[in-house]
Amino acid sequence: MSVTVLLDELKRVVEPALRASVEAIADEQMRLIAGYQLGWNDEFGNATDAGGKAIRPALAVLSAQAVTGSPDAGIAPAVAVELVHNFSLLHDDVMDRDIERRHRKTGWVAFGEAQAILAGNAMLVRAVEVLLETGEAGARSLPALLDATQILISGQSRDLLLEGRSSVEVDEVVEMEAGKTAALLACSSSIGALAAGADPATVAALYTYGHELGIAFQLVDDILGVVGDPRRTGKSSSSDVRAGKRSAPIVAALTSGTAAGDRLTELLKDGPPTTEQDVALATELIRDSGGLEWAGAQADARLAKALAAIAVLSLTDPAAAQLAAIADFIVNRDR
Amino acid sequence: MSVTVLLDELKRVVEPALRASVEAIADEQMRLIAGYQLGWNDEFGNATDAGGKAIRPALAVLSAQAVTGSPDAGIAPAVAVELVHNFSLLHDDVMDRDIERRHRKTGWVAFGEAQAILAGNAMLVRAVEVLLETGEAGARSLPALLDATQILISGQSRDLLLEGRSSVEVDEVVEMEAGKTAALLACSSSIGALAAGADPATVAALYTYGHELGIAFQLVDDILGVVGDPRRTGKSSSSDVRAGKRSAPIVAALTSGTAAGDRLTELLKDGPPTTEQDVALATELIRDSGGLEWAGAQADARLAKALAAIAVLSLTDPAAAQLAAIADFIVNRDR
Fold this sequence. Notes:
Two copies of one chain form a homodimer.
Chain A: H1 3-23, H2 28-37, H3 55-68, H4 72-96, E1 100-101, E2 104-105, H5 107-111, H6 113-132, H7 136-163, H8 170-195, H9 200-227, H10 230-233, H11 239-243, H12 248-254, H13 259-268, H14 276-288, H15 291-311, H16 319-332
Helix pairs in contact in A: 1-3, 1-4, 2-6, 3-4, 3-8, 3-16, 4-6, 4-7, 4-8, 6-7, 7-8, 8-9, 8-12, 9-15, 9-16, 12-14, 12-15, 13-14, 15-16
């Protein structure tokens, strides 16, 4: 089974519970925006089908299945991580002024900033409620979800603070990106097992798998932000270069100490490149200074660590093999 | 003991736990903003003493004391409701573009919109964590906190949606204001008892006390927004009239069917009054149409209901008498 088909299947396993969780939000407007954010309806409430790949809930379900043989204990945790993920997307889009997501207007563009922030809050609170409603399993897994959410919030805060700084180190960027991406993926990859009552060593190994996978995932995203094919990424070519983003490969290039890195520093010193020629030159310099190669090698190393973390566990198949396949799929997409 | 002294004392009971809860936020920037919002430090981290009256934590502590004779079971709930209250203040100030609170810049003015939103999120998540850390008592009281938070979010959403509408009914305004103020006061007034394991009837009566008190509190706020003494409210005279706010007494005036109400509708049809003469005229018409009298009578009736709800319980003194004294203080301040 291809990973795309697998992800579709796992999405169908979680979807009824995810829909029920949103339907339980009492406020009509908050429900409307949550449904829009999740791709289920347009801004007037008409049904649509515009959801994403739902990787986080897939991992949550598989992490339960890998330790118990059944997805059941992972379903509420899957709903909770997807709600937290979408809470952060709704808020981050406001803060980052992003106007498009999955070929649609972002939440704040469709509903206004305030309503988008409020709907994010409602989804966050709902995530906590969903876990609590499962009793003991929920109480056991809720602290992990809250931890991940605090790290996610902190990662976004540091991302915005780094944007305002003139010089940034690669380690700071990787740590910030770990907060923004790896924390919730680590939580997603272990929370189902945690809810199912798995032993701490297994939960910790699954957490490591998700954490390393998350960093690899972000590094690949960063590479695609420099050299991704617009037809596959749905973004403009060199989108991060145009936006003046200080992603890990770009900072690696800037701080490489190479001639190309120094030329890049000079080129970007007054802000993002404004002509097509300069965009192409900056992209070329990021490549020449080894920034992309470094990020690719890092992503591969992180993927290897992720796979190694779960290889030593005695997990049940096919879930164990599927966790490995998803990791490979995420890191090797479009490269 | 005067109510002001009592509130100060209760604040001191809760403060160490509240400070510890904020210190446990790992992110330095989030901690800084939380401390600013709570009045403990300026935007550079220097210690200040600019906190508010902390009515919600006082009620939470008293609700535990009233059923057990000790404040202890109410302390974590008190911290949690104060964190949720400040989460909502941080976010609402962004949405309402309010630039000053307690004679200081609001959080978003001091730290930027994005950081203020993120710090609000961190305080909300921390509130959940604080309750969970108390084990069974926390698990018992957390659903009540989450319920109140959802209603709070919904109230703010409806407030903003009502602003954009040309005609509004008094009932809609009172319901919206109940969401914005009464839900968290109701939660605060009962959550300590809930955590302490009080019987459902007692918890429900304390909830009713807080809910009615919350509506009365808001109605008094609305009256002061029309005719409050600037020296006591710290706001300009007729501040709600100037801001074009559709508070309960103003909507009651507009929909009164009186000649004064109709003149008011005509006066405000193109927006808030712009001259001092028109501000004075609008204020006069709100009074003449009975809007203020209606709100005052409503506030008195709600206060009576609040007091009646707890009068029938067998609560321990002095907490029971103090709950009554606080209600009277809140509703009869500055009138």
